[in-house]
């Protein structure tokens, strides 16, 4: 029942009812999916623009459900609303560290893994301790782990966030601000929070060839990062023209379909081997 004020109550329409049911079903199958080990990580290469070297990869979660491969856009919101993101995010962090360690043991010791962290997960009291524990368990060197957080995640409770970030940096873990430029926060947080890198959001990259404003913003972000001593990474680079603009502007690194789509583990390993042979 929905309260419609002085007009009294209105029942859910059939379609609203269905969608509530569908949501519940999805919620149940999501948590069963985690128990059944249906989640997988794909990895997208991150490349130094000046040398073309693949220095790392972003772990991106997918759900291998009985209805096929489901992308995070279709389940992360629900996972966040239901709190499922906490165990799911813990699984992602552990699995990404385990996989990176495995690749190190195969000789690719330079690889760094980047893991996306949701606000709800980050704000859990023991996030830094959990990270320390997972690093210990998997044997991954802290320097090989980068956490990607959005501006809103760190801005929600800035004092608490700063303390957690400090603790993570003490461990030797890197911090990257994801989707940089899409939030509404002031630049002042940049000097308050310990961080190592900024990621220019794809929305500034996709029309960078024809939109002077996007180009100007990207350039400003690059010089801001340089002056703050932060690494700057462009996401969603799809073609050579975009790449050239970023190179000329002095961007450090890039990621996007121009280099590679996110790959499953065996395809990623092939990619690394091929890129080394070049
Ligand atoms: P994001 O962190 O901004 O990740 C980049 C997204 O852009 C990925 O989508 C990636 O596949 C896509 N992408 C990469 N290069 C290109 C390109 O050149 N062109 C275009 N059009 N897209 C590109 P994906 O994997 O569907 O992930 C979507 C979002 O879901 C991520 O955005 C991130 O916010 C979230 N996400 C993914 N994995 C995780 C996770 O393990 N934990 C959490 N909390 N969130 C995750
Ligand atoms: Ca990310
Ligand atoms: Ca991003
Ligand atoms: Ca983005």
TrEMBL record:
EAL domain location: 23-276
Residues in coiled coil: none
Top-level taxon: Bacteria
Annotated protein name in UniProt: Diguanylate cyclase
Record organism: Pseudobacillus wudalianchiensis
């Amino acid at each position: 029942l929905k309260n419609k004020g002085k007009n009294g109550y209105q029942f859910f329409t059939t379609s609203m009812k269905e969608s509530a049911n569908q949501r519940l079903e999805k919620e149940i199958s999501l948590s069963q999916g985690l128990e059944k080990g249906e989640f997988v990580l794909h990895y997208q290469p991150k490349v130094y623009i000046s040398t073309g070297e693949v220095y790392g990869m972003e772990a991106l979660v997918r759900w291998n459900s009985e209805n096929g491969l489901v992308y995070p856009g279709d389940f992360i919101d629900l996972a966040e609303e239901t709190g499922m993101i906490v165990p799911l995010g813990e699984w992602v962090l552990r699995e990404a560290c385990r996989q990176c360690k495995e690749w190190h043991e195969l000789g690719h010791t330079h690889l760094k893994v980047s893991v996306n962290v949701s606000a709800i997960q980050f704000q859990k009291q023991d996030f830094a301790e959990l990270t320390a524990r997972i690093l210990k368990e998997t044997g991954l060197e802290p320097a090989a782990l980068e956490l990607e957080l959005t501006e809103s995640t760190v801005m929600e409770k800035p004092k608490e966030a700063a303390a957690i970030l400090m603790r993570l940096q003490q461990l030797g873990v890197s911090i990257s601000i994801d989707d940089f430029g899409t939030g509404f926060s002031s630049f002042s947080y940049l000097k308050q929070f310990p961080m190592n890198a900024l990621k220019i959001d794809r929305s500034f990259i996709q029309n960078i060839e024809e939109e002077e404003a996007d180009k100007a913003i990207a350039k400003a972000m690059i010089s801001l990062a340089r002056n703050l001593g932060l690494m700057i990474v462009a996401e969603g680079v799809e073609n050579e023209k975009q790449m050239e603009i970023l190179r000329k502007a002095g961007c450090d690194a890039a990621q996007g379909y121009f280099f590679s789509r996110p790959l499953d583990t065996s395809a990623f390993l092939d990619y690394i081997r091929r890129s080394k042979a070049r």
